[in-house]
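About this split. The held-out portion is used to measure sequence recovery: a designer receives only the C-alpha cells and must propose an amino acid at every position. Recovery is the fraction of positions where the proposal matches the reference. Here is one held-out target exactly as it appears in the evaluation file.
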C-alpha cells in the first residue's frame, strides 16, 4: 500500500499529513531513534519512511495515530512539509 502526503487541513498552519491506506500516521518523540517498536508496544505497524524536507533527507518513524501515545511522550500528525520518495 503506498504512502500519501496530503496538505494539512488548516491553511494557516503549514504542514502535511501522511496516510497509508485509510490510516493516518503519526510520529512519536520516543520513537525518534529506534529501528523497531519497544518491548510491550501494542500493535505491530511501524514504518521507516525516507522523505525530503527542503534540501534535507530524513527518515520518519511512523505509527498509526491510534497507537502513537503508548510511550507517554509527545506525538503529532501534522508534520513539516515533506516530499516522497527519496531515491
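Reference sequence for scoring:
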Amino acid at each position: 500500500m503506498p504512502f500519501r502526503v496530503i496538505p494539512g487541513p488548516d491553511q494557516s498552519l503549514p504542514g502535511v499529513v501522511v496516510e497509508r491506506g485509510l490510516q493516518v500516521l503519526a510520529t512519536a518523540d520516543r520513537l525518534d531513534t529506534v529501528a523497531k517498536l519497544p518491548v510491550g508496544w501494542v500493535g505491530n505497524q511501524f514504518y521507516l519512511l525516507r522523505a525530503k524536507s527542503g534540501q534535507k533527507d530524513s527518515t520518519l518513524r511512523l505509527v498509526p495515530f491510534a497507537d502513537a501515545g503508548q510511550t507517554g511522550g509527545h506525538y503529532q500528525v501534522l508534520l513539516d512539509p515533506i516530499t516522497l520518495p527519496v531515491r
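Annotator remark: The mean pLDDT is 89.
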